[in-house]
Specification:
The protein is an alpha+beta fold. The strands form four sheets. Strands 4-5-10-6-7 form a five-stranded antiparallel β-sheet. Strands 11-12-13-14 form a four-stranded antiparallel β-sheet. The chain folds into three domains: 47 residues, 2-Layer Sandwich (Uridine Diphospho-n-acetylenolpyruvylglucosamine Reductase, domain 2), CATH 3.30.43; 115 residues, Uridine Diphospho-n-acetylenolpyruvylglucosamine Reductase, domain 3; 107 residues, CO dehydrogenase flavoprotein, C-terminal domain (Enolase-like, domain 1). 33% of the residues lie in helices and 26% in strands. Helix 9 packs antiparallel against helix 10 and helix 10 packs antiparallel against helix 11. The protein is globular.
């Protein structure tokens, strides 16, 4: 399949990229890795008149320490994130999500911004990032705004981004001193698979009590979703196998799965129970 005709732009700075997006509006789409956009263009799902490539904007490809946390440039690839010692040491659930995204070839191209902005319910980056309390930096010609990542998503393929907006970075605060997190993904195959269910869990402990709990579910609702009943069941309690089973049951009740060609809603609920319990067990084991 051939790509439709379009005009290609290759700005060198965020200022120029934002100017172009502001001028071109609905006629333009930003191009990062292209693993979703170019496929949709070949399928004639999208036919923008202009592509604004972000590949030459150097800061977008940087990962740096910021306020003792991390700032992930929007152009970082899944492979770079999966292989980064800073990510693997301090944010292992994010490294797990990045390492499970597609094939090695796709991971070498797919960017964090593209995976987030595509707003696919089964995407690999949103659950671990939301579990770590990530924020996104959004920029346009008028300036920047910062919002919690979970506020970015509105539905399948839909976000709060306007036609002039660009994702510039993802901000992660340093995890709590006694905390752990994990990401688990279930698919029909081990690689090149869209999730049937994915789960990220984060636990923060003080003494022997859970003070912070985030459980994020993917592929079981129109957007990546927190499991509030499960989190409530955990906070203020001492971690135990029985508590994790209780939280897993609550997460399954919070979810809103559907039947589709990959799996039934009932099967997805069963797998939420299993993956949530396992993610909590792994998160606890990672707490020093």
């Amino acid at each position: 399949m051939l790509l439709p005709r379009f005009e290609f732009h290759e700005p060198r700075t965020m200022k120029d990229a934002c100017r172009l997006m502001g001028e071109l509006g609905e006629k333009a789409r930003p191009l990062a890795g292209g693993t979703d956009l170019l496929v949709n263009m070949k399928k004639k799902i999208l036919a923008p008149d202009h592509l604004v490539s972000l590949g030459r904007i150097e800061p977008l490809g940087k990962l740096r320490t910021e306020n003792n946390g991390l700032r992930l440039g929007a152009g970082l690839t899944a492979a770079e994130i999966a292989e980064s010692p800073k990510v693997k040491d301090r944010f292992p659930a994010l490294a797990e999500g990045a390492s499970r995204l597609g094939s090695p070839l796709i991971r070498n191209l797919a960017t964090v911004a593209g995976n987030l902005a595509s707003a696919r319910p089964a995407a690999d980056f949103p659950p671990p990032l939301i579990a770590y309390g990530a924020r996104v930096v959004v920029r346009n010609a008028s300036g920047e705004r910062i919002l919690p990542l979970e506020d970015l998503f509105q539905g399948p393929g839909a976000t709060t981004l306007g036609p002039e907006d660009l994702l510039e970075a993802v901000q992660l605060d340093a995890p709590e001193e006694r905390s752990g997190a994990a990401y688990l993904k279930l698919g029909v195959r081990q690689t090149l698979e869209i999730s049937i269910v994915n789960v990220a869990a984060y636990l923060g402990l003080e003494d022997h009590t859970i003070q912070t709990a985030r459980i994020v579910l993917g592929a079981v609702a129109p957007i990546p979703m927190r499991a509030p009943s499960a989190e409530k069941a955990l906070i203020g309690e001492a971690p135990s196998p029985a508590l994790f089973v209780k939280a897993a049951e609550a997460a399954a009740a919070d979810a809103k799965p559907i039947d589709d060609f990959r799996a039934s809603a009932a099967y997805r609920r069963d797998m939420i129970r299993t993956l949530t319990r396992r993610a909590l067990e792994t998160a606890l084991a990672r707490i020093a």
